[in-house]
Amino acid sequence: MSLIVMTAVTGKPSKEKIIEYLKGLKENGINEALLYPRSGCELEYLSQEWFDTISWFIEGAKSLDMSIWLYDDFNWPSGDCKGKVSAIPEFRLKSIVTKGKDIGKISYKSQHNSSLFGEKFFPNLLSSDAVDYFISLTHEEYYKRFSEYFGNVIKGIFTDEPSIGYAAEEDSVPYYDGMEKDYYSLFGRDFFSDMKSEYDNFYLYTIKTVSKKFNECYISKISSWCKSHNILMTGHFLCDDIPTAAVKHSGDFLKNLSTLSLPGIDEISTSFDNINELSLFGAIEYAGRKNGAMAELFALGPCDMSYAKKRAMLYLSACHKIDHYFLAISHLDMRGNIFVCDFFSNFNVDQCDFSGMRLLSSEAEIAKSYAKKDFTPQIYVRYPFELCAKNVTKNLDLSCFYELLNELTYNQIQWKFTNDELVNAPIIELNDRLEIMLDGTVSSIAEICDKFRKNPLVTDLNLDTVRGIFVRKYDDGSFVIINLFAPYGEYLVDGQKRFIDTHEVVLSPDTDQRKRQTFSPTFNIKYHNKNVARLMYLNASKEAKITCQNDSVVSFEIRNGTEAYINGQVLTCTNESDLTFGMRELYSATSELYLKNGVHTIKAENDLKYMPSVLVSGDFQAEVSSYEPYTLALKRRKCTFCKEKFSDYGKVEMYAEVTVPEGVSSIELSGTTLYTTLFIDEISLGEKICSPYIFNVPNNLWGKTVCLRIIQYSSMAPIFGDTDYWDKNAESSQWRGTPSTTKVLFGFDSIKWIY
After folding, report:
1. What average pLDDT does the chain have?
2. What proportion of the chain, given as a percentage, has pLDDT over 90?
3. SS3 per-residue string spanning 6-61
4. Residues 12 and 60 in one domain
5. 397 pLDDT more than 90
6. CA-derived radius of gyration, the chain
7. Is position 97 within any domain?
8. pLDDT at 91
9. How many whole angstroms from its chain centre is CA 48?
10. Residues 364 and 634 sit within 8 Å (Cβ to Cβ)
């Protein structure tokens, strides 16, 4: 299988909870999990208790015919074994100042954020002894206990953002003992003399020297260890989407990335319009061209990212040789959000719409088949390793490089990266003045695009190419079209009109010209669960309000350890939480309370973005009516639906009596992004996670009056409310993920019979 969830091992999970978790994954199309110790884990890392817990995962996975991937450290960056390596002074990463008054000064630097990374120093991955020690503490300890599972249940081990550049600040480069000797051996020159004389190629030669050492000491060493133990080495490097930073942190980035047995990239933001997005994918296409590759995806969320967008990212990845998709992250429970609290994504049964993962898993297998295909580039682009290495201490502006890759892509010109290979096609590269060169001649991006743009597969109706439409044409004649961020609407695909929806993926031409007839029954609404909404206490605020538009019966879910009051009276929790899998252990519930029509004040504190202090649940529709103080307006839920979509949480059913026309072949819903199932009476017509929402109708139903039932599912995003408002107004943050849409809208814009 191709989908692997990155499982955040938090708390002290019991064997029973682990089996319950794995079964939840298995039942919903997920067959592989990476075990990821991160903030919120209450087990001593690599203790006997830790290994006992890992054994429960492995044994459970084996019993369920699932696979496990290991993670090589606690949090990140890899190579430190949660501080045990860098606790030894000679195993700490060093740098050397190369200019200014401190030229020649060698030192190691403490980490800039110990609360995030967890330890004080960075490990020296340019020391063979330090890396051997790291392997002995981690890889060897896993093998000692679980060798019988290596190569069958255990597929590989994941390294996360190892770097030689963490200690190198401005005007400094990575350094290791014996570097001067290696520099001389490679280039026949004196390191210190070149540094002091500001020799033109000093930084290039230095980066090549440390890059070779990094490859030998860390990447090749661990890759070889994994190969000899019948598993894969996978993972990704730091700042892999920015060539200037990638060279600083990894040296010859493309070469070192290619050394991993399963090379990988970090694509956790899913921001298709990032200016440097295509540089990242070009790099992994280069590294994965022989044996495939992996991508870490989706961690910056949001947790209500549509399945259509997830599917689009899978296919964009596959178009660049990626055939393993690591889904970040899947929480055993959510206590990790206390420590890393500014972003949240979740791949487990907490998500009400998680059953849709079965369909996404099937899509991943199709995408994987495209990763095996090849395409012939019209042009090669030289990765700017040497340019970046020469300017490693400068803030080099590569905007022209990113613009070049974007314009080539959106003009549907097929390109690939080259590093230092000889190729049989035109080459574009940057010279030292950051001018774009085509086969040695200075050229503009417009000139290059005009020369190589030939017969674009997709255009707008004016025959112009469109920014945001990605096209990959394969040597076997097949193609993939992905709407990354272009407007939805009509386009020409190979000369034929076709509607392309937001984030839609088109794998083959189709010209569905069947007749469509809109019908508009009034649907009754059935809610399958209580609604749940948060109270928000931002910054130092301790007060929020609920405005009941009618008398209401509610209960409160209160995070354990939180004191909360309603109208000055303490809220006492007497019941177990009724929340989802990852939250229920962290909350307790009050009995049902009767709230009269009017305003009620709820006091609490220590609120967290993705760990609310107080939630309210009940049979209501909720919306934020004020932010100062935060006020939830509760009113009666909608009981019917025709055209106006409505917000809620969980599982909602819409049903109406309709007569199936003679000759109808299908039903089509437009204007939704939710996981949707459709029934006629008790007969399932299927399930969809993205456009086109077309469901085939059996002809034995023609002419019959039936109950048409449409069931839709939200994510858990509504629980967290308006996270965009939180981000804009919070006084502090570490980093921020993509904000959720704040509301999940059930319903659709139109429903049609197709003949």
Report:
1. 94
2. 88
3. EEEEEECCCHHHHHHHHHHHHHCCCCEEEEEEEEEECCCCCCHHHHHHHHHHHHHH
4. yes
5. yes
6. 28
7. no
8. 96
9. 32
10. no
Q: What is the pLDDT of residues 191-209, one digit of tens each?
A: 999 999 999 999 999 999 9
Residue 690 CA: distances (Å) to CA of 300, 500, 555, 677: 21, 12, 35, 11
Give me the residue label for tokens 């210190």: 192
| Digit-coded pLDDT (tens) for 86-125 | 999 999 999 999 999 999 999 987 655 555 555 678 999 9
Give the residue-averaged pLDDT of 420-434. 93
Sheet holding 693-696, edge to edge: 516-518, 750-754, 666-670, 693-696
Pair (7, 149) in one structural domain:
yes
Please report the sign of the dihedral spanned by the C-alpha atoms of residue 219, residue 78, residue 24, residue 746.
negative
DSSP state, 755?
-
- For residue 147, tell me if it sits in a domain: yes
Taking the alpha carbons at both ends of the chain, their separation in whole angstroms is 37
| Domain total in the chain | 3
Residue 548 maps to a domain: yes
Among the listed residues 593, 546, 548, 547, the one whose alpha carbon sits nearest the alpha carbon of residue 570: 593
- Classify residue 636 by its DSSP letter: P
Distance CA 428, CA 439 (A): 6
- Nearest Cα to Cα of residue 159 among 83, 77, 225, 230: 77
What are residue 54's phi and psi, to 5 degrees? -60, -35
- 366 found inside a domain: yes
What's at 13, amino acid-wise?
P
Specify the 3-state DSSP secondary structure of 362. helix
Q: 601, 618, 635 — which closes off a domain?
A: 635
Any idea what the CATH number is for the domain that residue 744 is in? Answer: 2.60.120.260
Q: Quick check: 153 and 57 in contact, CB under 8 A?
A: no
Alpha-carbon gap, residue 132 to 152, rounded angstroms: 25
Distance CA 197, CA 202 (A): 9
Q: Two tokens at 253?
A: 């980035």
| 327 and 346 within one domain | yes
545, 607: one domain: yes
Which residue type sits at 469? I
User: Which of these, 505, 456, 459, 458, lies nearest to 480 by C-alpha position?
Assistant: 505
Q: List pLDDT tens digits, range 675-734.
A: 999 999 999 999 999 999 999 999 999 999 999 999 999 999 999 999 888 888 888 776
Residues of the chain with pLDDT > 70, as a percent, come to 98
Distance of CA 338 to the CA centre of its chain: 20
* DSSP character string of 93-133: -EEEE-SSTTTT-EEE-B-S-HHHH-SSB-B-TT-HHHHHH
Please list, residue by residue across 649-659, b when 16 or more beta carbons sit within 10 angstroms of its beta carbon and e when fewer do: bbbbbbbbebe
- Of the candidates 505, 443, 444, 492, which has an alpha carbon nearest to the alpha carbon of residue 466? 492
What's the pLDDT score for residue 741? 66
Q: Do both 628 and 715 map to the same domain?
A: no
The per-residue pLDDT for range 129-142, each reduced to its tens digit, is 999 999 999 999 99
162 cis-preceded (ω within 30 degrees of 0): no
Domain of residue 656 covers: 516-524+639-754
Phi-psi region of 179 (alpha: psi -120 to 50; beta: other; left: phi over 0): alpha
CB 724 within 8 A of CB 639: no
Going by the DSSP 8-state scheme, the letter that residue 730 receives in this structure is -
**Side-chain-facing half-sphere of 235: CA atoms under 13 Å:** 29
Helices and strands (H, E) in the chain, number of each type: 18, 46
Number of Cβ atoms within 10 Å of the Cβ of 279:
24
Judge contact between 331 and 346, C-beta under 8 A.
yes
How crowded is residue 665: how many other Cβ atoms within 10 Å of its Cβ?
14
